[in-house]
């Protein structure tokens, strides 16, 4: 049986990170997480370095602006912190309207990947909903994008936003194949209203089918926003994922 890897995108706990970063990481480790996806790791580099040394948490991945940001600086800090995969979280919707624009965006990310290889950092891309809303000959923009990526560039499929954008996350996983190395697993109704998101297992997303479709992908808990206690939501989400994966 495949060993499941569970992580949490620390953006979910951003308010706590900004007031007590080491305490937040200690609480995350206490929940049973072994991995984290870092948020604002360049800004909080030193604090993360100290806090990670005091917990068993592994920074498997992190988000940083790569296509329109300072990619070389982000890669350098990622390597210093031992981040395995550095993920571009957002390429603006205007760059997903034509095939040529999508392929140009992929070429930009490929350039970052070439820069990162020597540092031992893998580059990836995380979607929202606009990458799947438009049809390109029976394929989503995300699939066109993936076909233009170099072989070692990976995808972090945000399963919630794929579904909200009108695509089946399960079918996307099937078509994108092994390039999907990370899943953002979040739940809630089919809405763009962030505060309506729910702990995993308490919303409308086909979570069990998604997990079954990607047994080897890292499961990353994330809530873009939440009306209740985000720590409780993260804990509940982890418990549900572990139960479904059995």
Topology:
Layout: E1 6-8, H1 14-19, H2 21-31, E2 35-38, H3 45-53, E3 58-63, H4 71-81, E4 85-88, H5 99-117, E5 122-126, E6 135-136, E7 139-140, H6 141-148, E8 154-158, H7 159-164, H8 169-176, E9 180-185, H9 207-213, E10 218-221, H10 230-245
Parallel strand pairs: 1-10, 2-3, 3-4, 4-5, 5-8, 8-9, 9-10
Antiparallel strand pairs: 6-7
Helical coverage, percent range: 40-55%
Q: What is the mean predicted local confidence, pLDDT? A: 97
Calculate Rg over CA atoms. 17 Å
The shape, in one word, is globular
Can you count the helices?
10
What fraction of residues sit in β-strands?
15-25%
Uncertain regions: pLDDT < 50 for 5+ in a row? none
Secondary-structure element order, N to C: EHHEHEHEHEEEHEHHEHEH
Largest sheet: 8 strands, parallel
Overall structural class, as computed from helix and strand content, comes to alpha/beta
Through-space gap between termini: 10 Å
Biggest sheet: strand arrangement: 1-10-9-8-5-4-3-2
| Number of strand elements | 10
Write structural notes for this entry.
The protein is α/β, with parallel strands linked by helices and 246 residues long. The protein is 41% helix and 17% strand. The protein contains ten helices and ten strands. The chain has helices spanning 14-19, 21-31, 45-53, 71-81, 99-117, 141-148, 159-164, 169-176, 207-213, 230-245; strands spanning 6-8, 35-38, 58-63, 85-88, 122-126, 135-136, 139-140, 154-158, 180-185, 218-221. An eight-stranded parallel β-sheet has the order 1-10-9-8-5-4-3-2. A two-stranded antiparallel ribbon has the order 6-7. Strand 6 (135-136) and strand 7 form a beta hairpin. The radius of gyration is 17 Å and the shape is globular. The N and C termini lie close together (10 Å).
């Amino acid at each position: 049986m495949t060993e499941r890897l569970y992580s949490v995108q620390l953006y979910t706990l951003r308010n706590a990170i900004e007031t007590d970063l080491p305490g937040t990481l200690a609480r995350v480790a206490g929940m049973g997480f072994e991995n984290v996806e870092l948020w604002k790791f360049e800004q909080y580099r030193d604090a993360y370095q100290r806090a990670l040394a005091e917990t068993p948490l592994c920074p498997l991945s992190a988000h940083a602006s790569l296509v329109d940001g300072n990619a070389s600086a982000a890669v350098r800090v990622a390597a210093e912190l031992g981040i395995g995969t550095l993920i571009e979280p957002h390429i603006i919707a205007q760059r997903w309207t034509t095939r040529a624009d999508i392929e140009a965006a992929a070429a930009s990310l490929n350039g970052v990947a070439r820069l990162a290889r020597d540092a031992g950092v893998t580059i990836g891309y995380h979607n929202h909903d606009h990458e799947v809303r438009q049809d390109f000959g029976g394929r989503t923009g995300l699939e066109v994008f993936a076909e233009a990526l170099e072989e070692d560039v990976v995808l972090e499929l945000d399963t919630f936003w794929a579904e909200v954008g009108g695509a089946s996350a399960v079918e996307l996983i099937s078509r994108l194949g092994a390039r999907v190395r990370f899943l953002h697993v979040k739940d809630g109704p089919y809405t763009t209203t962030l505060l309506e998101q729910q702990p995993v297992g308490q919303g409308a997303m086909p979570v069990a089918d998604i997990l079954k479709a990607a047994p080897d992908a890292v499961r990353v808990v994330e809530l873009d926003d939440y009306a209740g206690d985000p720590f409780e939501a993260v804990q509940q989400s982890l418990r549900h994922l572990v139960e479904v994966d059995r």
